[in-house]
Amino acid sequence: MSQKKALILEEDEEFRQLLSDELRGAGLEVMAFGDPLAMLREFSLQPVDLVVLDARVPELTLEEFLERMGSCAVGGYRVLVIAAPGDPVRVQRGLRAGLDEVIQKPLERRHLQERIRTLVGSGLPGSGKIGVGGLLIDPRSFDVFLLGERIHLTPNEFKLLEALLEFPGHVLTRDELIQKVQGPGIAVIDRAIDTHVFSLRKKLGPEGIRIETVRGEGYRFRI
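User: That's the sequence. What structure does it adopt?
Assistant: Structure tokens below.
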């Protein structure tokens, strides 16, 4: 899996470096800018997974900057806006519903890392771990963590979650999930998959809503 890319726009050099360190720690390839036009030039040259920017864009409004990004984007991308206290109402008007997020200063490191995982679904390269939102799973050790706390899943529940995370955002039919879950001596039927999904959603707490039912088709994991 290729390393995901992030661009940062932040006028303050010290804060720009802090954001760069956090994004690299989340496994992203990072380029950081203080000049909005320089960042837009780079943005127009290559696909980017995540853009992190201060709500107070130098020389432009946030709305103008997002509009320029949209007009020169190479592919799909997500936006994380860093807002000062009191900014969120103004900021929200410039964002694309369902695609972007706002967090306020002062930043809490754990919350920032969770938002990064939510937006790009990144795990640490080479670690084999998969992180989405408040979830982190390790297929090698069969460990699952919810907001840093380990939770217990049955083998079938774990295989089901792993299958859904393998293709985030894509619908998997019940037949496809059965093939993923069942093994030697284990027979799984359609209704059993529904039961496992119900149980898995409960155990995943607030992250359980990410497992969506697509009527007549199957299930998908929303990132």
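The radius of gyration is 19 Å.
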